[in-house]
Amino acid sequence: MSKTLFEKIIAREIPAQIVYEDDLVIAFNDIAPKAPTHILIIPKKPIPRIAEATPADHQTLGHLLLKAAEVAEKLGLKQSGYRLVFNNGADGGEAVPHLHCHILGGRKMTWPPG
């Protein structure tokens, strides 16, 4: 099975502007930003999408959310606010089959989103 785009970023096979990394997650700038700040934070463990996460992924998913908040704060988004987005499946807008959280900020978000 071939690697996803995100697995190639994790393996440093393709470049990315990394803003945070630890043993469980990596965060980097989205190459097609939808807001002034648009970061993707992903688990290093290849979980295809949130619907395929298992109870064994509990620690990784909790860690990802806490680190998303830390990254948003580091980027100056805490005061004004930001949006976290997970896409699941084709109708949800999923483009890469590797769970990822979009951190969007730097402008007012509208509702409904899409």
Low-pLDDT segments, ≥5 res: none
User: Quick one: biggest sheet?
Assistant: 5 strands, antiparallel
What structural category do the secondary elements indicate? Answer: alpha+beta
Please tally the helical runs, counting DSSP H or I stretches of 4 or more residues.
2
> Could you say how many structural domains there are in total?
1
Shape: globular
What's the layout of helices and strands?
Blueprint: H1 5-10, E1 18-21, E2 25-29, E3 37-43, H2 58-74, E4 82-86, E5 101-105
Antiparallel strand pairs: 1-2, 2-3, 3-5, 4-5
Descriptive account of the structure:
This protein has a single domain, classed as HIT-like (HIT family, subunit A), CATH 3.30.428.10. 20% of the residues lie in helices and 23% in strands. The longest helix has 17 residues. By secondary structure, it is α+β, with helices and mostly antiparallel strands. The protein has 2 helices and 5 strands; from the N terminus they run H-E-E-E-H-E-E.
Q: Would you summarize the structure shown here?
A:
The chain is 20% helix and 23% strand. With 114 residues, the protein is of the alpha+beta class.
Task: List the main descriptive attributes of the protein structure presented here.
2 helices; 23% strand; 114 residues; alpha+beta; 5 strands; HIT family, subunit A; globular
